[in-house]
Amino acid sequence: MQQLTIIATLVAKPGKSEALGQALLALVPPSRAEEGCINYDLHHSLSDANTWVVYENWVSKAALEYHFATPHFQAFSQQLGDLIDGSVGLQELQMVSSKA
Questions:
Q1: What is the CATH number of domain 4-92?
Q2: Where in this chain does the record put each ABM domain (predicted)?
Q3: How many Å apart are CA 6 and CA 66, to the nearest integer?
Q4: Under 8 Å between Cβ of 20 and 52
């Protein structure tokens, strides 16, 4: 199995940053509890109050696909149209260096 790193960038609509942050924060505990989750960390930009980034590591692509199908993620996805400006910037990465 190949570990998968995800960097998801979301930009809130004007006036929706706090609501987006709360919705993202609510995803953290159930996502971390998923069997294939290595880490699931929410970050808030210091230079743009509307930008939120989720840094995730999964044991495999299958674990990520399972995450996308969970009820908590599906419920979050239903809110996105009201909260974000544009679409989610999603990067799928594979580590090529050895771990520190």
A1: 3.30.70.100
A2: 4-93
A3: 14
A4: yes
